[in-house]
């Protein structure tokens, strides 16, 4: 099996750490740490955690407290090793005692050692600590409340009523930041219960994982302070501990939960009117999960809180779920239907974690995907249950697959289940592989096992491992047991064998279908799909267990997604998968189509006669005989196969030609996503005008049909219709289709002319982003300043993000340059969490790309300092730049920068590799495929509308 690059890096870092630890002077009884995993001598049972929070008082912005950890000694030891980072410990007051039924006995500490590389603090005892005995260690600590969005940090907002800046504190501990808030065993397998108490000024409220048990005034040294004592938690990992001190308001949920679970939504006072949708969604989706998993939510309450400054989208802390405002708050008169979908999706995702991740937790971050992939997939089921009228399950299934197809076609991708060495690698795998590929392979498994087997297997898994930890093998075992009980898999096939070919290998296959039209059979082979064929030297060394689904023109059936057959790999050697032969196919004038509803994570390549049959069907009036999802998949497969030079672009353009009669969203999303890649690379070439003409040719019919600027269409719009309208309008305005630009600029001018633009906006909500961007692109400073003023006045998080994105559309270089510099200025009005959004959108701008590239090259150190401590986010600067680069000079610029600033990029190694490979792939494409573009595009514009597209194949 080919190892991923991240595994190689992990081994190198571990080796360097070993050499470093061996190089220092050590006493004979001092341990030599050869990995970044905690020693296993102690297992925590319980924490008493007390924290005092100072929010701008005479102590400034700081916290202090004491943690008492009760633990069991599992093997004889001479020390207790904990995680602690950026904390000052009160060493003189640290106490270690042995506890028993007879009482407690102090244990003398003779030395305290800090091992910075491991984030360890080691407490050496004067006598041996004995296996089977129980101990307690009590540690005073203090630290600063920084603004880095990790650990225990501070956020702020401007209160409109009181006309003042208000501070709050909140935690973000996943994956390894609890150690920055209190000394602890900061690994997911080290579960324990927690008694948490929070001291704070009485003007604030304190929240934590559990309800407040009692509140008491503090001693005179803390006048007007109270100490809130919270109920004991269930056993849980440190990364799920959460607390906040704030002055927010809350609204209780509209729907009462069974079992007296109290559901509250918290937000700053000025935004409390935006919580009503979350009040409805939260309890409904929780109730759905309780029934689906056959496991009641185990806590007495759920608080969901919207934080003004938050690095992630949301965090699933048990009983206190934290969100970005854009992911929890919804304003019916301002937010779009897509914003509403995002709120529903993120809430469903975080609540799914209450079972997948919280109740049953991965043993180590290698199986992060068990948390994130499952939560992503189950959330799509939850949203479909809430809003079947949205058809969001189809949308998310296709979107996730398309995302995976692009990223996982790079050699620098990584397996779903990936080995972790140094802790700084963990944050790098919170990416589309863990989330989208994890979700997609789970959907694939759901479809080939069937609903009953999947549901029963998941229930068994949760029941067996609740309040404990599990690995992917535990999930495979539960699902296999139910699959064999229900006859969903043959007795000699197990889920582990099938699924590990998808979770332990990087990438995915393209299945090549070669029909024998005389014998009505087909021969199927598989090989790893890569964006660059020249890198495919060992692509045939990979083999996946592929669930085969197919249908024919003779009797089209796009409903049955259970596997009709399998492409199997050798039981002892995955590299020796046999050729698969499919019999009893129809006659040569009937098409065959594989991978029904994208039920498997693979691409399909057909022979030319079969392609011609499919294209003829698509370009007929009966194009929708082929299902919606498969129309989207056919386009994506053909475009990707052409991109990688596996076949010519003629087939792909023949597929896309039918879009002039397509009315649905998903095929358009697939096509425009792929055409967007070509657009980026053709922009600076002589044939770009021909490409523009081609885009106009295919967009004009759908633009006219949708009647985008007709306000009547925006009443009770379907989610997919809303997304399609916005997407088509965006392309139409960029490519000057019909009256799109004129209508947009006119609508924006009307808005500028109203008396109170912050309360009156004549632009339909779902196309505001298109209208704003078009007006800014065609406007000057006056339009920019008007929209910036709306940003400053806005009280809705999703609107503020939309306004940032729109402001980056300007063609005025000085405005873009200033905006880029504002992104690194905490007083400019741009929040730190939005800096990467601003940069990426400037980089997408024709004018802005060169400005963004220069800005990044010249300010790398400043960007690194601003993002600290989460410098893995540097990859979010590299990615949008790399996507537009396609020259040797640009590649060398990037390489020189990375080489000269190795320490800056040391926590973003995965993103660095993917960025460099992306530029190399772009260069290869221009070298190999530009000629095809020059040959095909002139044939395809409006002057050749009568062209027989079958001649392209």
Relevant terms:
about 950 residues; alpha+beta; 9-stranded mixed sheet; globular
Short summary:
This protein is α+β, with helices and mostly antiparallel strands. It contains 26 helices and 31 strands.
Count of distinct strands: 31
Characterize the overall form: globular
Task: List the total number of helices.
Answer: 26
Question: Low-confidence runs (pLDDT<50, min 5 residues)?
Answer: 1-28, 571-576
Question: What summary fits the major beta sheet?
Answer: 9 strands, mixed
From the alpha-carbon coordinates, what is the Rg to the nearest angstrom?
29 Å
Mean pLDDT level: 91
- Summarize the amount of helix as a percent range: 25-40%
Structural class: alpha+beta
Strand content: 15-25%
Cα separation of the termini: 36 Å
Characterization of the model:
- The protein has 953 residues and is α+β, with helices and mostly antiparallel strands.
- The chain contains 26 helices and 31 strands.
- Strands 1, 2, 4, 5, 6, 9, 12, 14 and 15 form a 9-stranded mixed β-sheet that branches.
- Mean pLDDT is 91; it is low at 1-28 and 571-576.
Topology readout:
Elements: H1 5-23, E1 42-57, E2 60-73, E3 77-83, E4 88-89, E5 95-100, E6 103-107, E7 109-115, E8 120-129, E9 134-144, E10 151-159, E11 164-172, E12 193-201, E13 205-208, E14 212-217, E15 225-230, E16 243-246, E17 249-252, E18 262-267, H2 276-293, E19 301-307, E20 314-315, E21 320-324, H3 325-328, H4 337-353, E22 360-362, H5 368-386, H6 392-407, H7 432-449, H8 451-465, E23 468-470, H9 472-486, H10 495-503, E24 509-516, E25 521-528, E26 546-548, E27 550-552, E28 565-567, E29 580-582, E30 592-594, E31 603-606, H11 608-618, H12 628-643, H13 649-657, H14 665-682, H15 688-706, H16 719-734, H17 740-753, H18 768-778, H19 781-793, H20 797-807, H21 813-822, H22 835-844, H23 848-867, H24 875-882, H25 888-900, H26 909-940
Helix pairs in contact: 2-4, 2-5, 4-5, 5-6, 5-7, 6-7, 6-12, 7-8, 8-9, 12-13, 12-14, 13-26, 14-16, 15-16, 15-26, 16-18, 17-18, 18-20, 19-20, 21-23, 22-23, 22-24, 24-26, 25-26
